[in-house]
Description:
Radius of gyration: 18 Å
CATH superfamily of the largest domain: FAD/NAD-linked reductase, C-terminal dimerisation domain
Bound molecules: flavin-adenine dinucleotide
Order of helices and strands: HEEEHEEEEEHHH
Strand order of the largest sheet: 4-5-8-7-6
Shape: elongated
CATH architecture of the largest domain: 2-Layer Sandwich
Number of helices: 5
Number of strands: 8
Amino acid sequence: MVGVGAQPNDELARDAGLETARGVVVDLEARTSDPAIFAIGDVAHRPMPIYGGRMFRMESVPNALEQAKQAASAIAGRPAPTGECPWQWSDQYDLKLQIAGYAFDVDEILVRGDPATAKFAVFHLAGDRIQSVEAINAPPEFMMGRQLILNRKPVDKAKLADPAVSMKEVEARASVS
Ligand SMILES: Cc1cc2nc3c(=O)[nH]c(=O)nc-3n(C[C@H](O)[C@H](O)[C@H](O)COP(=O)(O)OP(=O)(O)OC[C@H]3O[C@@H](n4cnc5c(N)ncnc54)[C@H](O)[C@@H]3O)c2cc1C
């Protein structure tokens, strides 16, 4: 199976005069360029604070839910939710795939565990910081990896690559940036 990408249907927003750029451009409150109009989910092109405000258009259920919270908070006059690390999952028969973060500006890919056992994780690193993790049947790698992506903490790569060192220890030994 080959995935060849998706096209956001942003014509309605564009025709209405809203700013679009491969999706409807929104801010951290899910507001479009018209402050009275919100856009969330697959069609929204939005900033991601943990990556320095870089813009992303994401296609996942957690993304749609997070943006629903942002829009609801803005409409209700409450502060926007914080502390988000984008993630998604998929269950394929006996394989649980969990992905956190986005793999960009990556200069090293580190595999933890043995793919032959169908229980492993692939970490994408920029320097000594984790940009994203793809975990196969490896919930601790996903959970702790997600935490490390969110906190932007530099990690000890040798420990991260060693399955004998628990992810809890890897996380505990990561230094605060
Ligand atoms: C095959 C497949 C597998 C996926 N698997 C996963 C997964 O494992 N994990 C994961 O996190 N995400 C997965 N996704 C992505 C996930 O489904 C989407 O990211 C999510 O549903 C996006 O939510 P949304 O509200 O933005 O859009 P949608 O869920 O697509 O909702 C948009 C709604 O708007 C309606 N609509 C469209 N045009 C109009 C109109 N003009 N007037 C009125 N209503 C309209 C549509 O009928 C639809 O109900 C998968 C997607 C696909 C296609």
